[in-house]
Each structure stands twice: as structure tokens, then as C-alpha cells.
Amino acid sequence: METPLRKAQFFIVFLTLLSLAFAPLLHNTRAQSVSSEVDVHTAILQAVEYLKTQQNDDGGIRWIDESSSVAVSVRVVLALAASRLPQEVLTSSQGLTPVDYLANQGYDWIFQSENGESELNLARAGQLLTAVAAANQDPYAFGSERINLPYLINDQYDPNSGVFGKATPNNVTDQVWAILGLASAYASVPQDSVTWLSQAQQADGSWDDGFGSTLDMTPLAVMALLSSDYLHENDPEILLALDFIGENQQSNGGWQTEWDSTTSANVTGMILQSLYAAGHQLTDPLWTKEDGSPLDALLHIQQENGAFGADYINAYGTADGILGLSDQPLYDLGHVRRVGRAFAFVFDAQDDDGGWGSTGQTLDVIIAAQAAGWDPQTIAINDRSPLTFLANNLEAYIASGPDAIGKSIIGLVAPGQDPTNFNGLNLVQALIESYNPDTAAFGDPENTWHQALSLLGLKAANVEIPEGALQTLLDLQREDGGWEYATGFGTWADSTALALQALLASGLSSGDDAIQNGFNYLRGQQLESGGWGDASTTSFVIMALNASDLHPDEWRTQSNGTPIPDLFTYQKPSGAFMFSEDFVDDNLMATTAALLALIGGHYYIQHTFEVPTNSVGLVIQDEQDTITTACVNIEGKSISGLALLKNSGIPYEDQDGFINSIMNRSNPQDGTLYWSYWHWDGREWIFHTSGAGDIDVLPGNLEAWYLVSWERFPSPPPEYTPHIQVICGENQLKNYAAQPYLHYYDLNKTAANVNQAQKFSVKPYSQDIESTTTDPQSETKPLSTTPLIIIGVLGVLVIALVVWLLFRKK
């Protein structure tokens, strides 16, 4: 018979065993709750304060001694961008930032001048490119030397093997950073290079850097693969790598190498970067161990001065610690990549009828695409463009009110259509007829959107705005400086931003009281994060800033939040923007509004309705890198490449379909030069594999002839980076069919002209140029037939080999 004492002993033992069984679960719950209470942003700001103490007068950041380090400065630039902080947060006593330091010292660093060498270090070039892209600098003419970083990296690529630089399966450093750099800048990544990196993965899921530092290299390799968009988070290579990372995680949630005694800020920071790239988060239960989460581990090694580190405390580890807390992979920070991915999402969502579901959404796409430089008529499925969709649906849409008519006029004028005669509709007349002189209003006199979009539509159509209509919109402004959607709704930032665009279009200056009061209202509504609570509202405010020539970066809060980084917080891995944290689905309306804002656009369109010119940009680059450009107007829907050259007026000589000479530049006696022919796809030059006479060139295309040696196969592309509007003027839009990709110069057209002109001797073609151009080789000959003979012999050998293998198989 059991005594009360034995029952009590049994009960105590039972409770002890029960507590032991549930201890890990309870501990994990505690660890997660501790992590959730920590203000990560505060930890980042404290780390930035430490970095300020490590900055030198030249703008660079120190590492192991008192001199500035390019490697550390690269990481710091990435850390600031990933934390959505402006680079100016770190400004030296001389007014210089880490970006300025990279601009001055980056060239010497990638060419290893500290070792007395002049050989390009490809891994360094890739690292520098990631920082340049993250800081939204010009990657095609960066720094005092105007370095074209994508060109340098691609010049070290072997398409026959898929290898960048000196990469080997035992040291993938060059391969990883080349891919990361190109992907960061939204440049093309060769698919074979990604395949090679995948195949270099070791059996345990890791990659090596040549020194056995697999924990350092593996997260970078994971990011490189995912950044290429050829692999995704559920592919076997990624899952195997994550297994390797998980097997090496410490019980405190962090990671360390064999020479660390505790959590390494560098390794843990980069591994967290790779987890973000794979869609994981800091506090995911999968990565929470018995003694804490990765967040706990990182915060545990943050020092009182803000630095991250334990065995080694320096700016390098601190920057990597910030990257680990940032929740953004380092390759996905630059505006060009993020805007380009958003446009890709939008264009992929186009319906078979040429539109995007509704007329209003289709108009939004047209306005955003045109602002980015594309001709919306060339964005087509089965020859059905957005304008095809409008022709079939616009009449029903404009019946909904004057706001719809005004927006339709803006959407038609942007790509050069005539709103007084579109598919038999006179939208301007319809808008004027909606105006009531008695109420001095369009539609509902108390509706801000009716009045604002009507005024913007009239301005776009170059029609005089009734004075009474302007006063009606002014009278709708409330005492707090804002506008309501309609009376009784309460003032809101998006309605205020739209009204401000309409007032600016109507002739008010930025100094007028109504404008000033409106912007003061928007300032008062700005959140500390830098935005206005959702993607659409934030986008509309940025549009108003764009229309008034106010830079969004100047609207900085006390926490260093600014509008554009805040807007990007709503972007999803798909490239789309969600509306808000409460409505997280891909949202086409929010995405198109964000795109228009991010590319500097607004609804204040000042075009006269002129059909875009029917022109093609032509680039001639000789072996001395002298650039000649020409804008060639064509008749009809296309022209052959050979006819394009002829119509340009640029002198050339051909023989049997081969171009021997252009502008008197040709292959010298016993030389190996030939004129290669290329087209621009929006972000890189693509070699034409057919003869120029067989190529159909469309209006809005960019074509190039480049004099190079046939001894190098495949031939390198021209280094000159073009833009159609620099060559042919603002009225020539890009052809989407030929140029589907967004480029840095699409967002920075001034840089396209200035930076490339500083790097190259660029001249538009004229007879004066032609008459003064002389050939340094007085004796020339037709292009050598040797390359054709070699190609022919190789073809015969391949055929013979195939036949032999077939006979052997039989």
C-alpha cells in the first residue's frame, strides 16, 4: 500500500521529468519573446554611432590600423543601404562619405595597386559593384576613373567554361562576387556561370574559398545563386546549403568558425543575409536553438560602444552585424534592380487583350512605362497593346466621371496620342462638358479627385484651365493644409498630394501659400519611418515632391527615415508592392503608383501630343574607342541593319555582304580586325549572329558597329553604354520588344549623357567629322577571310565526328 510520502515523492519525480521534457520548448518561447522585445533599429543606430568613430577625414572607414580600408568601406556602404539609412549619415569632417572614398580609391583597390600590381582582382570588382549599386551610383562610369564595372567583370568571363576570372571548384570567390555584383546592378548574369557555381557545391552542401573557410563562402554562394533568378529557395542546391548552415549553428543561435571562441559577427551576419535571400527571418523557429535565436546571438556580442564583435571587434564585423539585422540581402538594395523587378512583374501580368484587368489600371501602367522611357504601344501580346485595350474599353470608363476623363487624357498624352481624337472619342470635349460654370467645378464640387484630375487632364492636353475651377480646388483645402477625398471624409495625404500636383500644373508656384500649407500638412503626417502608412499614399506624396522639384531624400525624419526607402519596405520578393502590412497580396495599383514615384514621375504631364519619332540610334566604336553616334529616322515598321547604316549617311564600304570599312576605319594590312554588329537589349550589347542585311531593326532600337579583333572569340562588346534619348532626343521612346530591361540610365538620364561623354570621345555624326577622319593605316585590305575559313573547318570536323560516333555506335 502506497503511503502519502511515497505519493508525494512520485508526484515530485513526475513534475521534474515533465519540466525536463518541456524545458527546451519553454526556453525557445522565452528566447523568442526576448528577441521580439528588442528594438533592432536601436541596435543598428548604436552600431552606426560606433562606425562614426572609425571614419577618417577622407570618408573611408578604418579596419586593422588607422588607415581607411576599401574593403571595410564597401561593407559599410552595404550596411547603411540595407538599414535604409542615407549614406550621408557617415560624413567626415571634410564632408566626405564612404561612397566618396570608394569613388577616389576603388580603382586602385580593384587593380591591387597596394601590391605594386595592375592586374584586376575580380572578386574585389564584384564587391565594389555591389556597393556602387546599393548606393545608387553609376556602375558604368564610377569614380574618378569612370570605371565600367559590369564591363570589367564580363570581360573576365569565359563563356566556353562558364567561369569568371580564376574561379575553381576549390575556390569560388571570383565566381560568387562576379555574379553578386552583376545581379546587384541589374546587369545580365550568364546562366552557364550559375550552373558552374551550382556544380562546384561540395557533397556536404558547402562551397570553398580556397582556404577552407566554408562557413564564410557558403552564404555568399547561396546569395549569388538566388540573386541570378535562375535558382529559387526550394531548389536542391539551396536546401542542401541550408542544411549545412543548420548543422553548423551553435546552441546560442549564432555561428562561428574554428578559430572563433564565440559567435562571429562576420559569419553570423552573412549567414543571416543568405537566410533572408532564401525567404527566412531572424526569429523563424527553424533557426531558434536551445540557448537562443540568431538575433539573440548577435545582440549578445554588441558592445557598449555599439560595435559588434567578441574575439575581434572592428568596423568590418560591425558592418556585417548590421547586415545581419537588416532583413534585406545585399544584392537587392539598389533602386535599378528593385524598380526593374517591379516593372517585370507588371509586364508579366499583362492580359491577352493587351490590358491589365481594368481601364484605370491599364492607364496607370501606360503612364509609368512612358515615364521610364518605353513606348507603351510596343508592350504587346499577340499584337494587342495597352492602346488596343483602351480603344475597346475607354468609352465605358470615361462615363464614370470627370476624374476618369482627366486620367484618361494623361494616359493618352504620355505616349503621344491625341486626346481630341482617340478611336473617335474627343476626351477634351467630354471633360469640358463636365464643367459646370454655376458651381465652377467638374462633376462633384466637393470632390477633390474630380477637380484635381480634371485640371491635370486639361494641362496635359494644353487646354486653358477655367479660373473658377482652380479656385474651387483651392477652396477645398482645409485649415490643417490638407485636402479630403470629398467633404466629410477627413484630410488625407494622397488627396493632398494629388491636389498639389494639380495646383502646380495650374500655374501656382512652390512659394504660394496653398502649396506651402499643403506640404506642411504632408510633413506633419509623415511617420518616423519616412513614409505615410501604405504604399499608395507614400507614392502619391513622392509624386508631389517630384512635381515640385523637391528631392524625397531631403524629407528626413529624426530617425533618419526618408520616403523612398520606406516605400521599398512594401515591395515583395515577386517584385510587386503590397498595399500595406494589413493587405499583403501583390497589388498592381500600388505597384504602378510606386513605379511612377520611384522613377521621378508624377501626373503633371506637360507634353504636347506628338507621336514619338520613328528613329533608331546607331553607335560606331572604332578600335581606339572613339564613339560616333547617329539618330536615323526610318519609314515603315522596320529597316534592315545594312539599310540603317546606309541611311545614316555614315560612309562605309562592303564586299559580298561584309562590311570592310566604316568612316575610313578598316582592317590594316595583315591585321585581324573586323566590324562586329550588335544590338542593345536595355542593359547589355547582344551580338548579331546574322548578317546586317538580314536583321530587322525596329524604331526605338539601338544598334552598334564595333571594330575588334577576330582573334578573341567570342568578340567583346562595345564598352560604350548608350541611351536612345541621349542619341535621338526626349521624344524617342524605347521599343520594349528590343529593350525589355530597365537600365541605370533610364532612371538617371543626365548621367547617361554627362558620364559617358566624360569617359569617351562621343560625337554625333556630321559631314565635318567624316571629312576630318583619317585612317592611320594608309594601306588597307578587305576583311580577312581567315575567321570564316576557321569556322568552316571547325564545322566540317564537328560533322565528321558526329558521323564517326554514329558508325561506332552501330
TrEMBL record:
Keywords: Membrane, Transmembrane, Transmembrane helix. InterPro entries: Cobalamin_Transport, Terpenoid_cyclase/PrenylTrfase. This is Squalene cyclase C-terminal domain-containing protein. The chain crosses the membrane at residues 788-807. It comes from the Bacteria. It comes from Candidatus Brevifilum fermentans.
